[in-house]
Each structure stands twice: as structure tokens, then as C-alpha cells.
Amino acid sequence: MLIRPFRLGDYSAITSIWQETGLDQSETDSLNDLAQQLAWDSDLVMVAEEDGTVVGVVVGTIDGSRAYFHRLAVLPSKQGLGIGRKLVEAIEKRFRQRGVNRVLIMVNQNNPEVLPFYHALGYEVQKYVTLSKKLSS
Predict the structure, then answer these.
(1) In contact, 59 and 44? CB cutoff 8 Å
(2) Does residue 6 sit in helix, strand or coil?
(3) What does the alpha-carbon distance between residue 75 and residue 83 come to, in Å, rounded to a whole number?
(4) Cα distance between residue 111 and residue 99, in whole Å
(5) Which pLDDT tens digit goes with each residue over 69-101?
(6) Continuous segment of H or E residues that includes residue 30
């Protein structure tokens, strides 16, 4: 398995992975969000490739000395094989290379089954309330 930076030809595969894992938004939102991240820092969008097929993806971003990753997803048929762990390790390595000293992630309250995965990687639940507001364009 190869962990590598995103290539434009990966877009269809990663949106399919996001759909299969329930992380999809509207296709337009996904494309716009991904395009913005790629313009900002394309090295922080990484994919896992196995036998020429994209099987996982993670998107990271850096804000000063803090970093975030989101939209971590692995094809359901490939989950439990360590691919997600390798993607997290790869994005954390990129973060460390850039001087990041804290990584934050958000998990949807409707998806608590992923918490053991993150706990096993050393992430701890913090007591924050996240608020959001959609800004119309």
C-alpha cells in the first residue's frame, strides 16, 4: 500500500469513498471544499492507494501551531486493515514537519463508533462545544 499526495485524477475515487462511508455532502460542496484546500496546501490532502486503486483519503489543514484533519475515510471493504491508521500517521508526520504541536479532530456525535479508533491513536476527548453557521454566498 502507498500513501501519497492527492492527484486530480483521484477526485472521483475519493468522492465515492466519502459517499460509501457517509461523509458525502453535495458534490458541489465537496468539489469546492477540496479545491480550496488544494489551493491552500495540496500536500495535506493524502490518499491511500492499493494496487492502483484509491482506498482511503484524509484532508488536513494547519492554523498556526495547530492542525486539523477531517474527512478521513477508508472504503468499507478495506476497513480494519490499518489503512486509516497509516493515513493518520502520514498526515501527522506532515504536520510535525511544519512545526505543528497540537492536532484537533471533530467527530460527529452520530458517529461514536469511530471513537475507539481515535483513542487507539492517542487522541483524547476534549470538553468543547462546537458551534457552526452556514454563511451564504
Answers:
(1) yes
(2) coil
(3) 9
(4) 30
(5) 888 999 999 999 999 999 999 999 999 999 999
(6) helix 27-41
Rounded to 10 degrees, the C-alpha dihedral 55/18/129/62 comes to 60
Write b or e for each residue in 52-74: b if 16 or more Cβ atoms lie within 10 A of its Cβ, otherwise e: eebbbbbbbbbeeeebbbbbbbb
Strand partners, 50: 53
Q: Residue length, the chain?
A: 137
Taking the C-alpha atoms of residue 50 and residue 131, their distance in angstroms, rounded to an integer, is 37
Q: 4-18 burial, b if ≥16 CB within 10 A, otherwise e?
A: eebeeebbebbbebb
pLDDT confidence of residue 33: 67
Interatomic CA distance for residues 74 and 83, integer angstroms: 7
The pTM (predicted TM-score) of the whole model is: 0.85
What are 14-72's pLDDT values in tens digits? 989 988 988 765 444 455 666 666 666 778 999 999 999 999 999 998 988 899 988 89
Distance from C-alpha of 60 to C-alpha of 67, rounded to nearest angstrom: 7
- How much is the average pLDDT of 104-117? 86
